[in-house]
UniProtKB/TrEMBL annotation:
Cross-referenced InterPro entries: ADH-like_C (IPR013149), ADH-like_N (IPR013154), ADH_Zn_CS (IPR002328), ER (IPR020843), GroES-like_sf (IPR011032), NAD(P)-bd_dom_sf (IPR036291)
GO molecular function, one term: S-(hydroxymethyl)glutathione dehydrogenase [NAD(P)+] activity
Cofactor: Zn(2+)
Any one Gene Ontology BP term: formaldehyde catabolic process
Family (UniProt): Belongs to the zinc-containing alcohol dehydrogenase family.
Protein name, UniProt field: Enoyl reductase (ER) domain-containing protein
Length: 412
């Protein structure tokens, strides 16, 4: 890590500026500006490693990047571990906007607060945190409603203005306000949740996206009922977490659907009662599920990002009350279905980050549940790799050969 010269110093002779000892004096910045944040590295840009996506659909490149000091109400986090989520891959190699590069991806992480910017009240250096790709400002209309975890001050998908990461003199886009494929990152104070320091960061990082999303899709968004029947389409980490959420909610039948039979064993571990490969059947999957359940499941979940499957998931639901939740992401196509499917009482909805309101709780409930052995997390980790091996992790995900690869980024 290189220490760059700070360009802020005290112009009050009565105070000794810690920074001015080594750099030329810049008038106009008061001592208060320097001293109000009691952490010297706030004013030091970190040079560290990050995996940079320079171009659409190209391998990521490990580069030395510069991570600027946190500004007003921002914190700089040393990322200890990060998962690689299908959403990272989607924006790297599939999405409709192929020009928003260079970017630092990664949003499913855990780390340690390294420094805090002015005005930060809730974090101290040394706190262990999960960065949140869906922040909660607590003040907007959406934050104040218990009905949603959305916030009007949410992060843009890829932000240039808010980015604190640069490389070779170029600013890099920050993905979802997090950018965890970097040894250090800067996020807004409202984009992080403090967690129990006892939580193993190389595991609970997965609660920072996939596990929260899938589990919350079942528990918060669908509100799965005890004794109900459920179908989960797509058994990546998001879908498997939805299976786990359905089981936790007391569903009596959980049908796990995937075209990759390698996923079935894990689905059973997490609570699936039946597994189905649509390719093994000549009739449409929705027809098969209707037959298996005597008229359709009570709840279904699309965890793939495929609009055809979204419709199949809706059509697998029971008329009258069936609820189908979209968790998979795509911006390439629109979904469609005959209106009669909704007129006959099915409900079609969706979830971001599992509808979980992180900041309203005194501590993140899912991290606590994991520590209390009430939530499975370790079962999702099929590979442990280093940040430098990120392209290997991307290939594993693309080829369906892993549930989650967790990358070790910085030592804790
Ligand atoms: P993943 O690639 O690990 O899992 C997807 C699974 O779907 C794979 O097992 C694959 O074999 C299966 N699949 C593909 N096509 C299928 C088909 N036609 N029928 C049945 N199964 C099929 O992905 P993931 O990391 O678990 O993410 C899943 C989706 O959720 C992605 O679209 C991702 O972008 C999205 N996501 C959304 C949120 C959110 O907040 N809503 C959060 C995280 C991820
Ligand atoms: Zn994700
Ligand atoms: Zn808000």
């Amino acid at each position: 890590m290189l220490q760059h010269k700070a360009n802020i110093c005290s112009d009050e002779p009565t105070l000794t500026c810690r920074l001015c000892k080594s750099v030329s004096h810049v008038p106009g910045v008061t001592a208060l500006d320097v001293w109000k944040v009691d952490f010297p590295s706030n004013f030091v840009a970190n040079e560290c490693k990050a995996a940079v996506a320079w171009e659409f659909n190209q391998p990521l490149v490990i580069e030395e990047v510069e991570v600027a000091p946190p500004q007003e109400k921002e914190i700089r986090i040393k990322i200890v571990a990060t998962g690689v989520c299908q959403s990272d891959l989607y924006f790297l190699s599939k999405c409709s906007n192929q020009t928003a590069f260079p970017v630092v991806f990664g949003h499913e992480a855990a780390g340690v607060v390294e420094s805090i910017g002015p005005g930060v009240t809730e974090f101290q250096p040394g706190d262990t945190v999960i960065p949140l790709f869906m922040p909660q400002c607590r003040e907007c209309r959406l934050c104040k409603s218990p009905k949603t975890n959305l916030c009007v001050n949410g992060c843009p998908l890829r932000s240039f203005e808010r980015s604190r990461i640069s490389c070779k003199g170029r600013k890099l886009l920050q993905f979802l306000g997090t950018s965890s494929f970097s040894e250090f990152t800067v996020v807004k104070e409202m984009s992080a949740a403090k967690i129990d320091p006892a939580a193993p960061l190389d595991r609970v990082c997965l609660i920072g996206c996939a596990i929260c999303t899938g589990y919350g899709a079942a528990v918060n968004t669908a509100k799965v009922e005890a004794g109900s029947s459920c179908a989960v389409f797509g058994l990546g980490a998001v879908g498997l977490a939805a299976v786990m959420g359905c089981k936790a909610a007391g569903a009596s039948r959980i049908i796990a659907v995937d075209i990759n039979p390698d996923k079935f064993e894990k689905a059973k571990v997490l609570g699936a009662t039946d597994v189905v490969n649509p390719n093994d059947h000549s009739r449409p999957i929705q027809q098969l599920l209707q037959e298996m359940t005597g008229g359709g499941v009570d709840f279904s979940f699309e965890c793939i990002g495929n609009v055809e499957v979204m419709r199949s998931a809706l059509e697998s639901c029971a008329p009258g009350w069936g609820v189908s939740v979209i968790a998979g992401w795509t911006d390439m196509e629109n979904f469609s279905a005959p209106p009669i499917h909704l007129m006959t009482g099915r409900k079609w909805t969706g979830t971001l980050f599992g509808g979980e309101k992180w900041i309203s709780a005194s501590e993140p409930a899912m991290v606590r549940a994991y520590l209390d052995r009430k939530l499975m997390v370790d079962e999702f980790i099929t590979h442990n790799l280093r940040l430098e091996q990120i392209n290997e992790a991307v290939e594993l995900m693309k080829n369906g050969r892993c549930i989650r690869a967790v990358l070790s980024v910085s030592p804790q």
